[in-house]
Specification:
This protein has nine helices and no strands. It is mainly α. Helix 2 packs antiparallel against helix 3 (about 30-50), helix 4 (about 60-75) crosses helix 6 and helix 4 (about 60-75) packs parallel to helix 7 (about 110-125). The longest helix has about 45 residues, at about 140-185.
């Protein structure tokens, strides 16, 4: 009897990080990818103080954390949805849905943006960059490389400005929709 109670206590002492870490350890991926994934999970689960009680639930706090982790992994490591799903014990369609929610959450949820940026900083700290841009630039000579680097910076700046314009436009659309709803109530549409 004592052995069973000891096993139960050991399982109850398992943390959320340990549970997810054990899943990652069983998944077939490169050593570098595993190291990055584990660092992201540990950092975000510690930051959000995820408890074992909510792991594998639909708790919004946990789901937003997992969306940030899954989106960052998918966007920067290009691991398949099915593999990412195994990390969170979810079907690959759930991960597709998670990644589909990323843009909206990143734009409108300050806490989510902070989490995703934290995960992205971990990716960068491991020396993982946009391999496409790096491979194009490394294959070119000095002057061409400088021109392309300058062009990339201009495009990044333009992209940020467009994202801001889109956010402002979406905000105006939301306000117009609210006004339409109020007017329709007044006019009994």
């Amino acid at each position: 009897m004592k052995d069973a109670s000891k096993r139960i206590r050991k399982v109850s002492n398992l943390s959320a990080i340990d549970k997810i870490t054990s899943r990652v350890e069983r998944i077939s991926m490169s050593k570098k990818d595993r190291e990055v994934v584990l660092d992201i999970i540990k950092a975000l689960y510690e930051y959000r103080e995820i408890s074992i009680n909510i792991v594998d639930t639909r708790n919004r706090y946990l789901v937003d954390t997992n969306v940030a982790i899954a989106s960052c992994i998918r966007n920067n490591l290009s691991l398949p949805f099915q593999l990412i799903g195994k990390i969170f014990n979810k079907h690959h369609a759930s991960i597709v849905h998670y990644c589909g929610n990323h843009d909206n959450l990143y734009t409108y949820d300050r806490n989510y943006k902070e989490m995703y940026d934290m995960a992205y900083d971990i990716i960068e700290s491991h020396g993982i960059k946009d391999n496409i841009v790096d491979s194009v630039l490394s294959a070119e000579g000095g002057e061409t490389k400088n021109k392309r680097t300058h062009r990339i910076k201009l495009l990044e700046r333009e992209n940020r400005a467009l994202k801001h314009s889109l956010t402002v436009a979406n905000s105006k659309i939301d306000k117009l929709n609210e006004t339409i709803q109020k007017l329709s109530k007044i006019s009994n549409w």
